[in-house]
Target: 2-isopropylmalate synthase
Amino acid sequence: MSERLFIFDTTLRDGEQVPGCQLNTVEKIQVAKQLEQLGVDVIEAGFPVSSPGDFNSVIEISKAVTWPVICALTRAVEKDIDVAAESLKYARHKRIHTGIGTSDSHIKYKFGSTREEIIERAVAAVRYAKRYVEDVEFYAEDAGRTDNEYLARVVEAVIKAGATVVNIPDTTGYCLPSEYGEKIKFLMENVNGIHNAVISTHCHNDLGMATANTFSGVMSGARQVEVTVNGIGERAGNTSLEEIAMILHCHKGLDIDTNINTQMIFPTSRMVASLMNMPVQPNKAIVGRNAFAHSSGIHQDGVLKNAGTYEIMNPKDVGLDDSSIVLTARSGRAALKYRLGVLGVKIDDEDKVDKIYQKFLRLADQKKKVTDDDILMLAGADTAEGR
Ligand code: KIV
Ligand code: ZN
Model:
């Protein structure tokens, strides 16, 4: 029996707080409905105490979405929890996500507090949230830089207080994959009652390791991952949903499943990029413009003979029609001939193909990318000359 990994999407909270990515309530509802179609298990809809707009969006998303859990973020502060509970009143499945910083630097500089007092505040926040909802998630902010022995004490205390999910954020994106994996393993092995809660990853991408860290956490026993579409989020972003979903899709031997309908990945990516005004970098894994584009002659020749030579995923599995063969000065005769064939120009005479190819190379040296119109023109000129 395969194991289930829960997908917690925070595009509308950690993603939406990025400068320039703000959405209005109607746009947030559009994204939330798309996330529901995509198959995420939890939608973090906002931080309701932060503004009336965020509060209202959580209310409206709760009304618009049917089966995913709707989650609202709070600090470990009673007022935040009261407001979050109120914002979730229409949600069919609701979760309060409360927490506090646990690293020594957060304890000293943010709170001017002590380790013992932070445990008391964490427990009090979970107990307070439990008055409103059964499903309470606790986050240990900056867990990535929190001493493991102390973190284990915090996690044990909040689970005892009723936390159903415990989130271990690498808030600053500092951890190495091996280190983050070890941290989750340490908790799995040293916290009494750990199996009464789901352990969650929440990794930031400051060193480009968010996906690797998340994956390492999953291999050590985390069964929820906090992710965003296109990896958007604070600073360098969060773990990207599509990367985790496709890692598990491609590596079926791991026997870990998500509920993600992978064919919805590409349309969702484009919807979020356009609504948030945040273009996807062309070489972004899975959803970048070049993720399924082959431009070198050697690769094009291989892919035309058998897609599996250079493609580990079927583009259709992420919602694309097909991969693309981009015609550049690096392309070979096979790619040119293939493209002409797709455009309805079938040429069997190899000398003719060669003539067109020489013209094509001269043009490709001047232009970065040769278009379909260009090659039709080259082929037309050549066949006209040849007659
Ligand atoms: O990165 C972080 O620590 C967070 C928490 C608020 C969950 O976003
Ligand atoms: Zn975060």
